[in-house]
Amino acid sequence: MKDAKKIQTAKSLWKFVFIREDDIFKKHRSINRRALQILLSSIVDSFCTEIRNNPLYFSVSGEMECRLQLIGLMCRYKEIYLAVSDDVKRITEAVVKSNEKGAMWVSWFMYDDERDLLQKLLVADVEDPNYETINILYNRYCSLGLDEEINDFFIERFYRSSSFDIADLRYGLFIKPYLKFFKERQLEDLIEKINLNSQCNGRRAARISNSEIAKEVVNRFGSKFDFSKYEFFLFDNSII
């Protein structure tokens, strides 16, 4: 397909995904957005020029699902966010601020330095997203070579848990799936922070999760790691 034809197809998909509110378009909105994502891989620069030249066409519906789908596209193509009109930017930023369905967690396209989003998430009083959204976040930062930064963020997010229930949830979301990717200094940092926060070390499930961490540490450090420094990091001693 020639680029001019691809751009026309992409324009149609934009209308189907982000503007039309008919039931038939609602039913296929996610599929059409994924099709648009794939199509843009070869024409995104030309398509952004089209957006800048015709800002009234490239609007977004008042329906929240349309706006969330647009954020789903922007987090894969930052160029789209930069190309849309100021009105569409304001709409997008309002949805991100509300954290509707975890929108803030994928809003790196709004930052010149995408690491600034991680700092924003640490200080913002926002609900934790689902695992799928966290995995998108993780893969994004790893693709930028920011593996250590995203791992540090996950550890800090867990450390800032303010209740047993939140600590349980965050261990499952931010720590357990990524434990094998943590550097040795990050494993030590994790243990130190668990030791310092009673919401992390005093929860009922702490001994089980601490044992998972201790096992990973022993696999990396061998018997040289000094667990005795961490009075409240309790685990199954048979691991060592």
Short summary of the structure?
The protein has 240 residues and is mainly α. It is 64% helix and 0% strand.
Polypeptide structure, described:
- The structure is a single chain.
- By secondary structure, this protein is mostly helical.
- The chain has 14 helices and no strands.
- Helix 1 runs antiparallel to helix 3 and helix 9 packs antiparallel against helix 10.
- It is elongated and about 65 Å long.
- The N and C termini lie far apart (61 Å).
- The mean pLDDT is 96.
User: How many domains, in number, for the residues?
Assistant: 2
How big is the Rg? 22 Å
Low-confidence stretches: none
Count, helices: 14
* Tertiary shape: elongated
Helical/strand content category:
mainly alpha
State the end-to-end CA separation: 61 Å
- What composes the largest sheet? none
Note the run of SSEs as H and E: HHHHHHHHHHHHHH
Helix content: 55-70%
Name a few traits of the molecule.
mainly alpha, 240 residues, single chain, 14 helices
Secondary structure blueprint with pairings:
Elements: H1 3-19, H2 23-27, H3 29-40, H4 44-53, H5 64-74, H6 78-83, H7 86-98, H8 115-123, H9 131-143, H10 147-159, H11 164-175, H12 184-196, H13 198-201, H14 206-221
Helix pairs in contact: 1-3, 3-5, 5-7, 8-10, 9-10, 10-11, 10-12, 12-14
